[in-house]
Amino acid sequence: NAGVTQTPKFRILKIGQSMTLQCTQDMNHNYMYWYRQDPGMGLKLIYYSVGAGITDKGEVPNGYNVSRSTTEDFPLRLELAAPSQTSVYFCASSYTDTSYNEQFFGPGTRLTVL
Amino acid sequence: QKEVEQNSGPLSVPEGAIASLNCTYSDRGSQSFFWYRQYSGKSPELIMSIYSNGDKEDGRFTAQLNKASQYVSLLIRDSQPSDSATYLCAVNVFTGGGNKLTFGTGTQLKVEL
Q1: Which pLDDT tens digit goes with each residue over A49-69?
Q2: How far apart are CA A20 and CA A17, in angstroms?
Q3: A44 with A35: CB under 8 angstroms?
Q4: Assuming Cys at both sites, which of A30, A83, A99, B50 could form a disulfide with B63, CB separation 3.0 to 4.6 Å?
Q5: Which of B43, B49, B86, B94 to mutate to test the interface with A (most CBs of A within 10 A)?
Q6: Which residues of B fall within a CB distance of 8 Å from A108?
Q7: Hey, which bits of B1-113 come out as E strands?
Q8: pLDDT tens digits, residue range A64-112?
């Protein structure tokens, strides 16, 4: 099992550009999450999905969009990139969304917007 | 008040000593608690989960939970330089949208030779 994989590892965007961060998991987890982590800050939830076709906003969704067409994939779309979106983005998945929701993280995408 | 609070550190301990990392949380209804280890430039790695009051041991790691005091801790025995990392405390919080993890900002641990 590869677990959770993310591409690209690094990306530099210009202000106003758009991009899609890819996330794939091979653990057959229904639940998937996107977080961002800024220096010295905790992880902030951007969007999450409880299964194919079902997504919902997290704590900091503005400027982002998601889709979930398959169990395995959960891409995150940035439209009109802004410097405030410079961050490290982590995708995670879990088997359940009960209180026992152990989440497993991908390696992350480091994004810089200039 | 932050939902999950951790001392940012750095916490410095000598090799072979016990490292004690602490976390407090504000939601009394939280039922599940997790410790993640994050090396610099890497992703968080789940190392411990604890769901009931008391101690849970796994190798050199012991998680301790006290729901009455809203306090969870992680002890690392026989600390090694390879334990140097940031340790994130995560607490499950039930919201209208379901169960979500809220993360603390992490405690940086440095194990010195």
Answers
A1: 989 999 999 999 999 999 999
A2: 11
A3: yes
A4: B50
A5: B43
A6: 42-43
A7: 4-5, 11-14, 19-25, 33-38, 45-50, 54-58, 61-66, 71-76, 85-95, 98-103, 107-112
A8: 999 999 999 999 999 999 999 999 999 999 987 676 778 999 999 999 9
